[in-house]
Amino acid sequence: MEEKMMNQEITQPTEPKKLKKRDITKSMWIYYAGAELSNSYERLQSLVFCASMTPVLKKLYSTDEELSAALKRHLVFFNTEGILGAIIQGIAISMEEQKANGEDISDDTITGIKTGLMGPVAGMGDAIIWAAIMPIIFSIFLPFASNGSPIGGIMPLILYPLLTILISYFLIHNGYTLGKKSIVSLLHGGRMKNIIFTANIIGLTMMGALSASYVNLSTPLQFSFSGGSEIIIQDVLDMIAPGLLPLAAVFIIYFYLKKRGPRYNRILLTVVIVAIITSLLGIF
Amino acid sequence: MSVLGVAIFMGCYYWFSRLRLGYTISSALLQPVTIAVFVGLITGDMKNAMMIGAALQLVYLGVTSTPGGNVPSDPALAGCIAIPLGVAAGMNPQTAIALAIPFGVLGVFVDQLRRTTNSIWVHMADKYAEKADTKGIMRAAFLYPSIMGFLIRFPIVFIIDYFGVSVAQKLIEVLPEWLSHSFEIMGGILPALGFAITLTVIGKKNLIPFFIVGFFAVMYLGLDTMAVAIFATCAALLLNLFRLKEEEA
Questions:
Q1: Residue A132 and residue A23 share a domain
Q2: Do A148 and B190 lie within an 8 Å CB cutoff?
Q3: Minimal Cα distance from A260: which residue of B?
Q4: To 10 degrees, the CA torsion angle through B243, A207, A121, A82?
Q5: Co-location of A177 and A270 in the same domain
Q6: Which B positions 37-76 lie with beta carbon below 8 A of chain A?
Q7: Structural element, H or E, at residue A188
Q8: A46 DSSP 8-state letter
Q9: Coil, helix or strand for B38?
Q10: Residue A9 pLDDT greater than 60, yes or no
């Protein structure tokens, strides 16, 4: 089969194959639709990445051998964050286009670029899309939900997908036109760092504000002395600074996570036990 | 809608939201506040549904933002069970949270089952790729995992939502005071887990003062979330200005 492919490369048609913007957008939609749908432990997003490349590859490669080789090329291990991942798609598409037009790009180069980018892109995607945009949008409308209004659910359901799809759309077309070199410089340049920095600051401040509004912990403890004077512990705490107990709860869990890693179920269980014991003893 | 109708709807809803069709649409659908909108529509009790949804959302706010999508807890399973049962049994949000937590944990195992079965389709796709069958690859990426997902997810929610209402109602009646108070404490502390997780995901120790600023902006100044969002955005943009200057210099 190797030989066959070589022959075909030599007998390339002279007219260059050019993808339409529509083909690339179609590819974005397939990846967006299925990024997590077929996610498996074995190869994570490889299946959907390959599926998303099908509209493009069908246009670029006319023989079954070429198409088959291209499909297999994109069934290798792949995993990244699904919104920012669109930029990798854009690059992969532009490389496939160049390859189909006879440029000397090996399978390893395409896979190499994809695997090289998926780590950093996933890191940025988690920081921007999942740790900032998502909690910020949901938390802004949370007060509506707490008051019993459906706006608290409807607005995030519209805004979050809309905003992230726009980002995907922008990135896949940019990835395609800019090509691989510019992307690398974009990733390492100051602009990306500034976006993450901005998102992180907004995210952290919002998390602080939400902790203040929604973590509720106070103590009914009080000590009476023989002289008739009383010390109400909560009043003493509030005099130092309001909300010390909720703040402590957040940071105790935070430091535990930092030290011991993501043992969420153990923390859940601990909170349940602590709640029952302190309820029985009348501490909280 | 009858209990049967609600149970069928929630079973389908859980399947569809967890199908993850549409990367961010589905992740919005599986949030408790969004589930609550639909529970409110089908039960007619929007107010209570939203209030329970909001309480659950706080517990799971940070959970969804964990890197790599390795869900440590499933807000959709928790929501699809605790919100309709909570509304039907007239639970307060705190009690509904206590009900939701175990199901949130159970959801993790359900997801592991799905990801394991999904390996079958990748191997199928390998064969389709060999034959250059692009339609087959699309089927392996979308159709087969969807069918398997329905078989795995629908029955759990359907059975619990259908048979759970009377159990939940009885439970509320016999709940002793100390236990219901411990649910309140739990509901008060658990949001802290969500926020702590988000703190670790953002992972920049030197930026933690911004968390403190946000916290005390509410405690001392009584600002609402929108106000904090506006000030935080401005502060972040201004700080960027200084950073750029430093880099230029």
A1: yes
A2: no
A3: B200
A4: -140
A5: no
A6: 37, 40, 46-48, 50-51, 53-55, 57-58, 61-69, 72-73
A7: helix A151-188
A8: H
A9: helix
A10: no
Judgement on whether residues A95 and A165 belong to the same structural domain of the protein: yes
Whether B200 has its CB under 8 Å from any CB of chain A: the answer is yes
Same domain, A95 and A166: yes
Segment 10-29 of chain B within 8 Å of chain A by CB: 19-29
**Model pLDDT for residues B94-143, shown as the tens digit of each residue:** 889 888 888 888 888 888 888 888 888 888 888 998 888 889 988 988 89
Does residue A129 sit in the same domain as residue A259?
no
Q: Calculate what percentage of chain A has a pLDDT beyond 90.
A: 38
ipTM of this complex prediction, to 2 decimal places: 0.84
Report the half-sphere exposure of B165 (CA within 13 A, side-chain side): 13
Q: DSSP H helical segments within chain B, as ranges?
A: 3-19, 23-29, 32-43, 46-60, 75-89, 93-130, 134-138, 144-174, 177-202, 208-221, 225-248
pLDDT tens by residue, B132-168: 888 998 898 889 989 999 999 999 999 999 998 888 8
Q: Answer yes or no: do A177 and A89 share one domain.
A: yes
Among B46, B50, B122, the residue with its CB nearest the CB of A46 is B122
- Quote the pTM value: 0.83
Q: Could you tell me if A122 and A24 lie in one domain?
A: yes
Domain finish residue from A138, A173, A203 = A203
Picking from A145, A179, A203, the residue at the C-terminal end of a domain is A203
Domain containing A232 equals 218-281
